[in-house]
# Entry
Amino acid sequence: MTNKDNKEEYRYEDLDLLRHLQEKQDVSQRELAHKMGVSLGKMNYILNALIKKGIIKVQNFRNNKNKLAYTYYLTPVGINEKAILTVKFFKRKLNEYDTIKKEIAKLEEDMKKINVSEIKIYDE
# Structure
């Protein structure tokens, strides 16, 4: 994987996290980490980065007995960022789909040229 790929993967994590926070605001970092399949430390790092960017806002439940309970809100910047990430992700996946579709067409042409029924295929 290249650095670009790592960056895109991280950006998808941002998009996924923003989706979760838009659906459910009152959630613990532990719960978010579990849902997203990342460590608690990584979740804390991502949330703090998004807070610093102004993408999300955090508020403590003052009347809650559990002082670790927080509410995470998407800011207007966060809503815009989610829209941008959604469009970029969609375009990238659409491009991948088009590439795969072309490759399938080439494979179908190759298969027409040979007698597929005579070829033994072994599962790995």
